[in-house]
Structure formats: structure tokens, C-alpha cells
Amino acid sequence: MDKGLLIVISGPSGVGKGTICKELLKDFNDIEVSVSATTREPREGEIDGVNYYYKTKEEFKDMIDRDNFLEYAQVHGNYYGTPKKNVLEKLELGKNILLEIDIQGALKVKDEYPHGVFIFVVPPSMEELKNRIIGRGTETEDSIETRFNNAYEEMKFINKYDYGIINDKLELAVEKIKCIITAEKCKVSRENYNI
Ligand code: 5GP
After folding, report:
1. What is the dihedral of CA 133, 160, 97, 94, to 10 degrees?
2. CB 79 less than 6 A from any atom of ligand 1
3. For the chain, which domains are there?
4. pTM score, whole prediction
5. Ligand 1 pocket test target in 50, 102, 103 with most atoms within 8 Å of CB
6. Which of 14, 46, 55, 89 could be cross-linked to 133 through a Cys-Cys bond (beta carbons 3.0 to 4.6 Å apart)?
7. Is the dihedral of CA 118, 185, 1, 87 positive or negative?
């Protein structure tokens, strides 16, 4: 088993995964977020190498051909992928790695790393989800529709995950995920007791 913990967080667009992950990192300084590659255009304020590695379709396909991805998927019409080398090296070194990826990607990772921790973030209601996607102000009308329609399909996969967290109150959702991570790290199967 890898020495570090692989934490995978998924959930529909607008559910608040990004904010949850940011909050988690404030308290767990031994967790590192994997920066994905994507063919989507950067949003205002996003920085290459920080939010994503922004790639052209050709560059992304080249990375696929070179087997550079742990997983990749087409999400809302764009490609997204988790660069493999960095994640595997860090896990081997005992770092805990957080992946904020879609369901297709999470299921591929689960096939290969079933001992990871798979967490699904659920909106309090679908109506609230739509309000959040619109309220974010980052998407075109088409993209809002695509993301919202995809959310219904995505919700069907919650039972493939280990944990479901309703993001009603941010602090509560973050607290629950912190508890999960703490408990998972204490699992006897993960520990190497030097006794
Ligand atoms: P956004 O465009 O809002 O940043 O992300 C759209 C979706 O792509 C989100 O559900 C996000 O979790 C997912 N995503 C981000 N990076 C990756 C990745 O590396 N692989 C996969 N499969 N999905 C990703």
C-alpha cells in the first residue's frame, strides 16, 4: 500500500468542492492538492500551474499518448486529467494527496487505488445547486445548463463512494471531511507500528 493517503473528492459543479478543499488545506499542512491539466479556458483570476495546467487539445492528446495521466475524462465538453508522475511519487514519499476530480475520473482511480478515500459532496437541493452555479457568475448560459443537467447524472454515482457529505453549511461539511481524513489515517491497515 502507498505510504500517503489518496483522498478523492467529487460532486456536481457548483456544489462547493473547491471551497471545501481550500478550507481543508488550511488545517492539514501535510495534504497536497494535485493540479490537473485541462483544455478548458482559464476563468478570470485563474493562474496556469496553480488552478490548472491549461493545455490545447493537441497538448492534452500528446500527454494521453505519453501515458502521463493517472486518469483523464471529458467533463462538460472539455478534457481534464490528473498528471500521474507527481501523484505517485508524492504518495510513495508518504505525502497525502487530494484529487478534486469528476466521477468518471474518480471511478478509474478507484479501480487502481481502492484503498484511497472517496468522498462525494452533495448539494442541499438541486434548486440550491442551480442557484450556486448561476451565482458564481463564471459560466455562460449554455455551460450552466450543461453543468446542471450533468449534475443529475452524476448524483446517481454517489453509492460508488465511501462517504457522502451534504454541503449545506460549509464549516460543518469541512469539519466532517476533516474527521474522515483523521479517522482514515488512524486505520490499523494503514499504520506501520514500530513496536
Ligand atoms: P471546473 O471546470 O469547474 O474547474 O471543473 C469541472 C469538473 O472537472 C469538476 O467536476 C472537477 O472536479 C472536474 N475535474 C477537475 N480536474 C479534473 C481531473 O484531473 N480529472 C477529472 N476526471 N475531472 C477533473
Report:
1. 170
2. no
3. 6-185 (3.40.50.300)
4. 0.93
5. 102
6. 14
7. positive
State how far the Cα of 83 lies from the Cα of 63, in Å rounded to an integer: 9
Which atom of ligand 1 sits closest to the CA of residue 147? Answer: 6
User: Which residue puts its alpha carbon closest to atom 14 of ligand 1?
Assistant: 101
pLDDT digits (tens, 9 = 90+) for 116-147: 999 999 999 999 999 998 988 888 899 899 98
Is the CB of 148 within 6 Å of ligand 1? no
Measured in Å, residue 100 CA sits from the centre of ligand 1 at 7
Verify whether ligand 1 is closer than 6 Å to residue 39 (CB atom): no
C-alpha triplet 24, 25, 28: angle, nearest 5°: 90
Q: Grid coordinates in use for 152?
A: 443529475
Q: Which three cell numbers stand for residue 165?
A: 457529505
Nearest-angstrom CA–CA distance, 132 and 126: 10
